[in-house]
Specification:
Strand order of the largest sheet: 1-2-3-4-5-6-7-8
CATH architecture: Alpha-Beta Barrel
Distance between the termini: 9 Å
Radius of gyration: 18 Å
Helix content: 25-40%
Low-confidence stretches: none
Number of strands: 8
Order of helices and strands: EHEHEHEHEHEHEHHEHH
Number of helices: 10
Shape: globular
CATH superfamily: Metal-dependent hydrolases
């Protein structure tokens, strides 16, 4: 089964998408699963992982309600307040919803770059592991060294690195110091078997007129570091519509991974998502 491991849905009137403003005109509208359906059909994708886009539990409940009524949605990566005094209880309560497969604090938007290192998070990471939840790491390159300090402390917790850690691709340059630091940190993270990498979000980090060649060395690096068994393809729809859309990114990914065996392609385009997110939770793929 092919699985899109990363997409969003939203209704603007809900009012909790602080980052989503009229300045992002191409995606500043409501998005429902029916809008995504033609893209899924064209790519032969049968299941999806629905990911939070707002830092509220209300949105997580909204997404879970959608998932429970939509067979194509195999699981939800939600949000809870990791800084709340009762955060462990909140995680336990959310985990009662079996279609919740992970949690994603929006680390990239947190002012404290060292937030991941706070000792108060220790029982939360433990609670996530105990509930079989995955930690989706929405981070920027500067957070990767902090993430590296965390992942080794929780070998029973799976960390999914969203969008390849957002490498700085917008200039079209790869041989920069920033890229070299990103490459170093990615290689170090990949040494931990409980870290996997989501092949998503790259085209929105690239220049608006991106070409496949602009992405190749980045994709080759994560492929070398993580291997095809620890890469998950995701569309990042509808955000990907800011960078030409679903079909061009899917076609680019197919081209970039064309040299893989059929078995490895099947893993990246679905098998790994099922193995990482759905072994005991979510809607089983059968």
């Amino acid at each position: 089964m092919r699985i899109d491991a990363h997409h969003h849905l939203w209704t603007l009137a809900r009012g909790d998408y602080g980052w989503l403003t009229a300045a992002l005109a191409p995606i500043y509208r409501d998005y429902q699963l029916s809008d995504l359906a033609p893209c899924l059909a064209a790519a032969g994708i049968e299941g999806t992982i629905l990911v939070q886009a707002a830092p509220t539990e209300a949105e997580t409940m909204y997404l879970l309600d959608i998932a429970e009524s939509e067979e194509r949605v195999r699981g939800v990566v939600g949000w809870t307040d990791f800084d709340a005094a009762d955060a462990v209880a909140r995680i336990d309560a959310l985990a009662a919803r079996k279609l919740l497969v992970g949690l994603r604090p929006m680390v990239q938007d947190i002012a404290d770059d060292d937030w991941l290192l706070r000792p108060e998070l220790v029982p939360l990471f433990t609670a996530m592991a105990g509930n079989g939840l995955v930690f989706d790491a929405l981070v920027l390159p500067r957070h990767l060294p902090r993430l590296l300090q965390v992942v080794g402390c929780y070998p029973d917790l799976t960390f999914v690195l969203d969008h390849c850690g957002k490498p700085p691709l917008a200039t079209g340059e790869i041989a920069t110091d920033a890229i070299a630091v990103w490459q170093r940190d990615i290689a170090a993270l990949a040494e931990h078997p409980n870290v996997v990498c989501k092949l998503s979000g790259l085209v929105t980090e690239a220049a608006p007129d991106w070409r496949i060649a602009d992405l190749r060395r980045t994709v080759d690096h994560v492929l070398t570091c993580f291997s095809p068994r620890r890469l998950l393809w995701g569309s990042d729809w509808p955000v990907v519509d800011l960078a030409r859309g679903y079909a061009p990114w899917f076609a680019a990914a197919e081209t970039l991974l064309a040299d893989l065996s059929q078995r490895d392609k099947a893993a990246v385009f679905g098998g790994n998502a099922a193995r990482i997110y759905l072994p005991t939770r979510g809607r089983q793929t059968g």
